[in-house]
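Contributing new complexes? Match this layout with FE2/S2 (inorganic) cluster.
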Amino acid sequence: QFVILKANEDGERIPLTMAETNPEKGTITIIYMVVGKSTALFRDLAVGDGYQDVIGPLGKATHLEKVGKVVCVGGGTGVAVLHPITRALKDIGNDVTCIIGARTKDLLILEEQMKDASHDLRVCTDDGSYGHHGFVTEVLKEILEEGDVKQVVAIGPVPMMKAVSAITKTYDVPTLVSLNPIMVDGTGMCGCCRVSVGGETKFACVDGPEFDAHKVDFEELTNRLTA
Ligand code: FES
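Output block (do not edit by hand):
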């Protein structure tokens, strides 16, 4: 599930998935990258300041099952979203291999936490500054070749999720992705977050954000994100 945050009057509403929750303490953890004005406003908040708005939990909770061998693939800040899912998959008894990637070593996050949350962690960087020199999809293909993978979860940039989906489709392995279309209200009213899944229009904010990757129209999602 996710929340929508707004730092102050001047900020936009930003949807962000919760990386951790602690019901006892009543806290949630959000991991974000400063990419524009509104995330810069988050960064400028001092300890003790408040966000103007925190709306959530929104969306559907992740549905996880014990299926056997699972591969979790994360790219960029998507690793933050993947972390609690990976840990939960391990906790319910799955054999979890994790592949995380980033453009360069400095942009890699949560390596230690992902190591703890999985049985086997593989790291990739696009520029070869750390771990496997290349894309997460190359490592994924090697693991799929070994066989027996029952499920893949992929969270990261759309091109990465699209590429993962194309590969797992050829191996016929069910794949879950977490989509990140532009959102406004986050409650199913504006239609801004619509995505096509299995030929049907879905709202990522209320029907997702997780969907069966093999049914997602990634072409349309890419076009809408660049509009
Ligand atoms: Fe408005 Fe989903 S964000 S309908």
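Reviewers usually confirm one structural detail per submission. For this one: The longest strand covers residues 95-102.
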